[in-house]
Specification:
Helices cover about 35% and strands about 20% of the residues. By secondary structure, the chain is α/β, with parallel strands linked by helices. The chain binds 1,3,4-trihydroxy-5-OXO-cyclohexanecarboxylic acid (DQA).
Length: about 140
């Protein structure tokens, strides 16, 4: 099984970025964690990160016919992007949405997720472990 893992804007600054919320580990550590979690459960992953909405839309479109599923942390675009929602609906791959923090208990503007309108599962507030849980869920769909 091939899963495209997408991380959105500012997640490349993990470690530096609001460590009280997002933790002290950096983005390289998250990438290592995702790769080792995927290897442990027998899933092939490709990792993609962008700070640009259109680049994320392009990556989702390019996943069609290449990947079996998508794991996405859309970061701030979670709450704003109809374009990312539409791209996910267009390619119609099994999709899990993951957030490091629990967006339901933060500011009001973070409580709505466009991506949740398509994603088959949303995992919030579990830090790095949420990515592993998401990969396990996608694997269980096979
Ligand atoms: C986030 C939550 C979003 O609200 C925020 O904009 C992010 C990260 C998370 O992983 O908790 O950039 O997706």
């Amino acid at each position: 099984m091939k899963v495209l893992v997408i991380n959105g804007p500012n997640l490349n600054l993990l470690g530096l970025r609001e460590p009280a919320l997002y933790g002290a580990r950096n983005f390289a550590a998250l990438q290592d964690f995702i790769r080792s979690s995927a290897a442990a459960i027998g899933v092939d992953v490709e990792l993609f990160q962008s700070n640009h909405e259109g680049a994320i839309v392009d990556a989702i479109q390019a996943a069609y016919g290449v990947f079996d599923a998508i794991l996405i942390n859309p970061a701030a675009y979670t709450h704003t992007s109809v374009a990312i929602l539409d791209a996910l609906k267009a390619v119609a791959l099994p999709t899990v949405e993951v957030h490091l923090t629990d967006i339901s208990t933060r500011e009001e503007f973070r409580r709505f997720s466009f991506v949740s309108l398509y994603a088959q599962k949303t995992i919030c507030g579990k830090g790095f472990d949420g990515y592993k849980e998401g990969l396990e869920y996608l694997k269980s769909l096979q």
